[in-house]
Design goal:
5-stranded parallel beta sheet, 5 strands, globular, binds 5-O-phosphono-beta-D-ribofuranose, Rossmann fold
Length: about 160
């Protein structure tokens, strides 16, 4: 079975990273979620990525804060797409995580999304869009979601709009 793997560096990341879970469950997309750190448990991270890839992980989402090397550490161990979610926290409030996640050396890509909640949600959407390349049903669900989002803009506007 093809699935999306969500990895976060610490339990303290879960509050934000559960936003990924909410989106994937809404679309009935199979996922795994674990805590594993690039720094505190490098062997666990390596072993999990290798095993998850063998079992069908097709996209990895990595959420981490501070000197956030988790996405890069995962990318080092797989050629599946890796999406990095930089998380707030620490003295630099996420800027450290953003730069650590986004500034990968050439040939070792991490697709870095926005910091925090919006990034966690977008990571889930981007992962699904990757899976949807070979999944017509999922593609249709994502297209329907865009239609609903556009409708919501109109509904929200109607509550306050005024034209001359
Ligand atoms: C990173 O360090 C984690 O991803 C987390 O965002 C940050 C702080 O971790 P804790 O000290 O809260 O466990 O590895």
């Amino acid at each position: 079975m093809k699935f999306i793997s969500i990895v976060m560096g610490s339990k303290s990341d879960h509050e934000v990273m559960k936003e990924c879970v909410n989106i994937l469950e809404k679309f009935y997309v199979p996922y795994e979620i674990i805590i594993s750190s690039a720094h505190r448990s490098p062997k666990r991270t390596h072993d999990y990525v290798k095993d998850a890839e063998l079992r069908g992980a097709n996209v990895f989402i990595a959420g981490a804060g501070m000197a956030a090397h988790l996405a890069g550490a995962i990318a080092a161990n797989t050629t599946k797409p890796v999406i990095g979610v930089p998380l707030r926290g620490g003295a630099l409030d996420g800027l450290d995580a953003l730069l650590s996640t986004v500034q990968m050396p050439a040939g070792m890509p991490v697709a870095t999304v926005a910091m925090g909640k919006a990034g966690a949600i977008n990571a889930a959407y981007l992962a699904m869009q990757i899976l949807a390349l070979e999944d017509e049903d999922l593609r249709a669900k994502l297209q329907e979601d865009r239609v609903l989002k556009a409708k919501k803009v109109e509904i929200d506007s109607k509550e306050i709009e005024k034209f001359l």
